Structures are given as structure tokens and as C-alpha cells.
Amino acid sequence: MWGAIRQWFDSREVREVGTTPDYRFSLANERTFLAWIRTGLAFVAGGLGIAQFLPPLPIAHLREVIAIALLLLGGGVAIRAVDRWARNERAMRLGRDLPPSRFPALLAVLIGLGSLLLVAAVLVQAIE
């Protein structure tokens, strides 16, 4: 585990293994990383926006729950992004297949479930 985390901060850990891949692949890997970081930042911005600007909702603490969920999701996406970048870079340098990831499916399911919960909250509010 600590070796994987060390790769995030020390590019020599990644660059000393294997052979240098075509730079286009490394740049594509970096662009994918940056796209995930933007996604994480969007979740964080949404969480902060909800915490600061959304008025209290009729369901007690729903606003805070939504804000905290988005903030945690944003942090999780950012951490997963750097881990994915390092794993992909290492795999490319070693000439291996890119490691599979369940994270996009997990993220989609979490967002889908979250939206269903919010739809239920809106319906509860409309009924009252």
C-alpha cells in the first residue's frame, strides 16, 4: 500500500521501471487524470455550494447530508484519479495490459442511487 502511495508523489518510482512508452500514451494518461480531477473538483464545488447557498430543506439535515456526500465523493474521486494514473503509467512502462477498474461503475451507481434518494426527498416535500 505505501509503495503505491509513494508512486503518487515520487515520479521516479514510476519512471525507473520498464521502458519509456510512446509519449502520446503518457500524455493521454495525464489528460484522463486531469479529467478525473475536474470531476472531483466539481463534486467538491457542488458540496460547498449546497452547504453555503441551499436553504434548509424540510427533511432535517438533508442539506448537510447532500453536501457531505458530495464533498466525500469529490475527495474519493481525486484520490482514485492519482492512483489510477500511477497504475496505468506503470503498466504502460512494463508493456502490460492496463489494470481494470470498477471505479467508473461504482461512481455511476453511487450517483444513480443518490439521485433516486433526492427524487424521493423531492416527492416527500411535494406531498407535505
Automatic annotation (TrEMBL):
Keyword Plastid included in the entry's annotation: no
Broad class of where this protein is predominantly found: membrane
Membrane topology designation: Multi-pass membrane protein
Transmembrane annotation, as ranges: 33-53, 65-82, 103-127
Key words of the record: Cell membrane, Membrane, Transmembrane, Transmembrane helix
All copies of domain DUF202, residue ranges: 24-91
Domain of life: Bacteria
GO CC terms, sorted: plasma membrane
PANTHER family xrefs: DUF202 DOMAIN-CONTAINING PROTEIN, FGR18P
Protein name per UniProt: Membrane protein
